[in-house]
Structure prediction request, 670 residues.
Amino acid sequence: MGKKKKSKKGYVVGVDLGGTKILTAVVDKKGRILSRVKRATRATSGADKIVERIVQTVHQAIQEADIPAKKVVAVGVGAPAPIDPQTGFAFQASNIPALSNFPLGERLQETLQLPVFVDNDVNVGTVGEYAWGAGRGTKDMVGIFVGTGVGGGLIVGGKLRHGFRNSAGEVGHMVVGFKDQPDEVRCGCGRRGCLEAYASRTAIERDVQAAVAAGRETLLLELMEKKGKRRITSGVLAQALEAQDPLMIEVLDRVTTYLSLLVATIANFFDPEMFVIGGGVAEALGERLIAPIRHKAPRWFIKESDAAKVCIVLAELGDDAGVLGAATIARMRLK
Amino acid sequence: MGKKKKSKKGYVVGVDLGGTKILTAVVDKKGRILSRVKRATRATSGADKIVERIVQTVHQAIQEADIPAKKVVAVGVGAPAPIDPQTGFAFQASNIPALSNFPLGERLQETLQLPVFVDNDVNVGTVGEYAWGAGRGTKDMVGIFVGTGVGGGLIVGGKLRHGFRNSAGEVGHMVVGFKDQPDEVRCGCGRRGCLEAYASRTAIERDVQAAVAAGRETLLLELMEKKGKRRITSGVLAQALEAQDPLMIEVLDRVTTYLSLLVATIANFFDPEMFVIGGGVAEALGERLIAPIRHKAPRWFIKESDAAKVCIVLAELGDDAGVLGAATIARMRLK
Prediction:
């Protein structure tokens, strides 16, 4: 979708649509952000209202960037759902149910009267890091985002790979820990052995709760209560690690082992130049998450001798990965 | 390596260099084999002798094809070793130790006075199936070859992928069965959890021996002795399955489960159009290996709904995959 004859010059607008907030930015062709607008998504308010709020952020961002509206050539959107990138149609959107099976791209394009390109948020974040973040200068890169779940994206020869059924990059559901026992930990997707069942914040919480139930002591729950949260946030994880909480150290060791397996299994199959690891957990823990992976992953590399050539790095863009990636996807697809 | 100005027309010679035999064929541009020559490798006879024997097969194949030697524009070679495809240099060649750390491509090119392109035998088999076998007409395809070990190759956008360190396609060392227990089955590569440790003929033999040691009865050993073999060959596996040997059925069920995990984990990451499964075990068992994988793999697909779109098929070329693939690689690289 999207008219192809618009100029490659000019500005694009990147929209990072999340379950709780919409971040929108005007981006120039050098990846500079000219304005940023943030609004609540109000995920329960219905598809029409959400589309309206997205459109408002786009208009407001253009206004704040102080550029002529006609110089905006396209809009890119990252959405928390599987997307058909050709049409911008959103399938199951578990964080924004109103957008499930909804023609998001089409509706935005009608309202904005601009070419609109929609893609999955993790694909969009991968493109952001590839074009403007840690992956700059590479040709083949894998993005791994560790948060509530584990998502990923795949750049091949400078292009985002969607795959034959638009499901490429689902690293969280690569099977690394299959066991025959029926009592094995299940993934949120209902299957067994998925990486996400071992290395997401959800998995960390589950392991911590189980350890506490078994009588283990930990600062984690105390820190959680202090923050008035009901969930173990990434910030709480970072604080517990800072305080050298033994349970946190133990759980993190398991998480980095499984992320190392993921990196190695991808290296042995796809052999990319770089792995960029981001997401809430990675942002909060930084090198304390990355360094152990860099150390452990090569143990499973079939060619361990030159494992050091494979870069394993922390994402650089934080919250901006979404808007920059969305803007970049729009610009790439205008070509 | 290889002069690039030779004509794309004319014939190419494909060489399938194995640990026990050399298969060489003259191939025309439509993938038709004009002649076939087979010689023993005599792997222990030293690098010079092996090169000499390869050269002899090339000359003999040209003679038997009854074509003018000057119409042969290039030679492709598949070798059982990690290869630098740019130079044709062979690293660790465990089946032909004399060729370890040996400039195979350069030496053949000097002697043959033709452009020579060398690649790993499994990559070459993948290209053969892609260009002339089960993968014809696809753009993205994964080859999985199940034999003594498990190897693979990866076609992306019609091209063989080597990866950043020439180690793409090592599907046998993707980690699918990691467990924390130290008594876990180790792979031949020394690591734990590799697919090859669960789904190769070597793994089958190990499981059968362990079951027999534990008192299980099976036709497998009897069939093996009848054939006068000291190893459980693929043919013996096929016969035992034909006879509905309960241990064979049980072991095969485990093998197809692990191969299904491999297919699914690749589908979730890379999302190719087709998986082509070949190699000695696959050739001997045919659909009795493939059908269970086709049935089980989608259980782990993150998008199970459209899993039927992903083709999982048996390789078609058998022994010809090597010579056809080698010839095709030579022709592709002449471009």
Summary: The two ends of chain A are 12 Å apart (CA to CA). The CA atoms of residues 197 and 206 of chain A lie 10 Å apart. Confidence is low (pLDDT under 50) at residues 1-6 of chain A. Chain A has two domains: 11-129+320-334, 136-314.
